[in-house]
Amino acid sequence: MSHPIITYNFCPQCGKPLIQGQFSKQNYPYCPDCSFVHWGEFSLGVGGIVWRENKVLLVQRAQNPGKGNWTIPGGFVDQRERISEAIVRELQEETGLETEPVSLIALRDRPGNKHDLYMVFILRYIAGELQPELEEVSQIGFFTIEECRKLPLAHLSLSVIEASQTQLSGFIPVHGIQLIGEKSVLYQVPTPIRQDI
Question: For residues 38 and 19, what is the distance between their CA atoms, to the nearest angstrom?
Fold first, then answer.
């Protein structure tokens, strides 16, 4: 489900009309009374790769955009949800499987009218049987990489699936570091990769 783009004409904090102003060499609507600045529209999505017996989990979309196409399972991150919680929830909702994140291996950055970020996790299967959530998923299954290449599969999905065959580690959560914000989590590569460039 896509989130609508909102045009702000009035300040959501004090209700006064917004005017255009320049911040960091860009024009943004802002409120001259309370200093609210509308920095733009953003969405955050997650996708998950689950391998079992040399086959990867795919879902067939039951809705547009992309109805009938196959993709890795995933969805949108809720406002107060960690990305690792979002992918576990989305995977369980769409497929019925219980999983846990192993690492974050890909990030798609798509600026535009709305700045859209999409992060892909490798997940470990824990439990459960395949049960498609029929409102969003018409079919579900595990496929070999050869079978994936014959399906009407989203290009991004195929790219990250192929990458995940050889790269099982990526960014992982780091614990024991003091961060601002109760739900803050730092993701970084598990071992230092230092090369003089």
Answer: 10
